[in-house]
Design brief:
single chain, mainly alpha, 84% helix
Length: 361
Amino acid sequence: MSPVSPFLRTAAAHAWRLLVVGVAVYAVFAVLGRFHEIGVALFLGLVVTALLAVPTRRLARVLPRPLAVAVSLLGSAVLVLGVLSLVGEAVAGESATLVREFREGLAGIEAWLAGPPFRVSPGALSDLQSHIGAYLSSHRSTLIGRALSGAGHVVEVLTVLALAVFSAVLFLHGGERQWSWFCSELPEGARGRVDVGGRAAWRTFTGYTHGIVVVAATNAVLVGLALYFLGVPLAVPLALLEFFAAFVPLVGSPVALAIAAVVALAAKGPVIAGVVIALIVVIGQIEGHLLHPLVMSRAVRLHPLVVAVSVIAGTIAAGVVGAVVAVPLVSVVWSVRTALRAHAGPERAPAPAPTAPDPDD
């Protein structure tokens, strides 16, 4: 019987470890999928805590801790509502102009497609619009039923938001005490490792949250200014869409800019749309080669391929929520592994041999 080659033995050793990791990741996403409302609420609570921990800590120097938490949460809520109201006013103010420009833009696109090299029949878009109108008319009852059933999800969304705010209040008010109590309830032999891993996970999660917000805000400002100077309508809402889309690394920003390109094509024609498409490349280069290395390097040390696979796997497992959660989850797991290895390293090292005392002492 020929001995097993070292390469095959090493490959088998890594293969079963990968299978165990895959089963563990699948189990985590299965549990999150079963209780996704609770998971999303806790994740949002942790995000709010990571963003408001520093302002709350500074306010707590001059205010009582509960009042500092209330001021931080209310101030951030006012800021978010102000931005949303600004977007609503921008959409309402440009609605009439947007409808007119879209009609003119569709006519221009139809004339452009009728010429070389496409040579689409002039009535193709009109036929498409008539088909869409006929479909909506024939399926009106189904669409209304889906809309009414979808209205029931509003209650779930409000419940998730309420639980997220409640969790953030508790974390901001006494997160350190809660973590110390949790560690004290564990077996004595596991307290040190759990404390080290938990603190490493929180440092990574906080760094990732701060970094992704900076990257998203920078992308949104660049996109908003570019669309404004190009004269593309709905520049503010499209910039806000870019902000939220940037929370899905590598994928979200190009998708948001593709939507902006469609709006530019319908409102301003193919030349401006081409410029917006060029923005996809430019902003992608800025995000990948400048913002992420400078802002995210301390928090996330993952290869771009790992990020891409994580986003795709999270999307398959849990949709949009999985795409948003995948990268911070993988980053946290990797940081915990690194911290535990560093913590266990001195314990596994052999103790130095005792030396005989020096006679001259």
